[in-house]
Amino acid sequence: DAKTTQPTSMDCAEGRAANLPCNHSTISGNEYVYWYRQIHSQGPQYIIHGLKNNETNEMASLIITEDRKSSTLILPHATLRDTAVYYCIVRVATGNQFYFGTGTSLTVIP
Amino acid sequence: ETGVTQSPTHLIKTRGQQVTLRCSSQSGHNTVSWYQQALGQGPQFIFQYYREEENGRGNFPPRFSGLQFPNYSSELNVNALELDDSALYLCASSPGGQLPTDTQYFGPGTRLTVL
Question: What pLDDT digit, counting tens, does each position of A73-90 carry?
């Protein structure tokens, strides 16, 4: 399974863009990148996913490098409610199992 | 549309006992996955059920077993509980089971404490 590497923690000022990086250098060509977040002791919440093109939805943008070895999740205008642990996951191509790492703990500062 | 629900919310058991956790999948979803999340860690995949059949299993011993019913709800059973089984147990449902773009939607979890 392709592994992901994320910084342990990050801070972001309220109202500014939060850019969360993820390295997945062993990703295969047909494996998707997924992002989830988890607010303290709640179930993980789906944010966005992509294969090779950049993606945007109402919550965030996902930028995937051309070689697909890394990606960045962008929260355009961070609010205090965005404080959470953010997980970058590479979805195995042959099944539907998600393998989580330890994620990035994002703190949005007033 | 009802989301993923889990019961009970919290549970306290003693070592050696058995426990059953329940999950109702989101409407229209036929796949359920179970995860264990220890304190300070990311969720760890236990197993997945697709149309009542086990469809993948993580690195968990056989005392972790499951079941999926015709209505696609699911149970997670853990026998001979150990202290290290104390964790948040998460259930996630997804619509298709096999597509690489199937998104999993998580329930709120069941907090299990083993004393």
Answer: 999 999 999 999 999 998
